[in-house]
């Protein structure tokens, strides 16, 4: 926990120095090539002739460009939020959660490439500067962003590969439409036509004072990426024209509007007529709601529930809610 808290309590320039010192401390140079790119960021690639996805995270938060203040934290188990007197604009899980996952993968010597980029929040400045250098790398198979809210979203940007998407769907992620991130910026600038996706990393209500971080959700993505080395390193995943980006809902599970999560409005759901699929989606709703609230709040809320005579959709919702509580209680050691 302490290493992650450090990431929330430093600004962008301090974080870049921290990462370089951290890589030195864990002797990462024995396994990786490390390059600092002025105004671009830090590029870390595995040594040896191999293929690898480039894992993308960004160094800045909204606080670097607005309040210039650092957050004061409330920590309850695996759930982090802003203190009521915090002077900043947000908690900073976007994207310190992604940075933590990337550093953890490096510490475990996972044979991926990693890009830690400056100034994503003001237009992907760092990834744009780094793109020519990245285009000269022969081993990159795809761009994997660690810069998405929630616990199970797979954000797409139109630079899609159906096989890459299917790999993450088989690990429990669900397609959603993204707007912009470093991974999509690199795909748009790639001279090799490499696809991208962006994964949930455990923050919610980003860019607001209501931002929260769920450590269980963050560790979920960390565990999934550790398990996917062979698949993600097997070959280049090239952009296809068969995916219809505009046809995606804002999310296939639930709708986000103005950084506020909306639940319970019949107009926002787009369910298939098949009852089984509908119940599955209600289960996912319950799971994600509990994850968003964190263990303590969700546990207290569940204790008040009575399912006697409840509709099937609500039973499915509560089952998902319960499973999220179990996962949080038995989360990966942090």
In short:
The chain is of the alpha/beta class and 334 residues long.
* Average pLDDT over all residues: 84
Strand content: 15-25%
CATH topology of the largest domain, by name, is Aminopeptidase
Supply the number of structural domains: 2
Order of helices and strands: HHEEEHEEHEHEEHEHEEEHHEEHHH
How do the strands line up in the largest sheet? Answer: 1-2-6-3-7-10-8-9
Rg to the nearest angstrom? 20 Å
The first-level CATH class name of the largest domain: Alpha Beta
Helical proportion, percent range: 25-40%
Instruction: Find the count of extended strands (DSSP E, 2+ residues).
Output: 14
SS summary, helix count: 12
Provide the CATH architecture of the largest domain.
3-Layer(aba) Sandwich
Approximate shape: globular
Describe this structure in words.
This protein is of the alpha/beta class and 334 residues long. The chain folds into 2 domains: 2-247, Zn peptidases (Aminopeptidase), CATH 3.40.630.10; 271-329, no CATH class. It is built from 12 helices and 14 strands. The strands form 3 sheets. Strands 1-2-6-3-7-10-8-9 form an 8-stranded mixed sheet, sandwiched between helices. A hairpin with a 3-residue loop joins strand 1 and strand 2. Helix 1 (2-8) crosses helix 4 (93-107) and helix 10 crosses helix 11 (295-302). The longest helix is centred in the last third of the chain and has 19 residues, at 275-293. It is globular. The model is unreliable at 242-273 (pLDDT under 50).
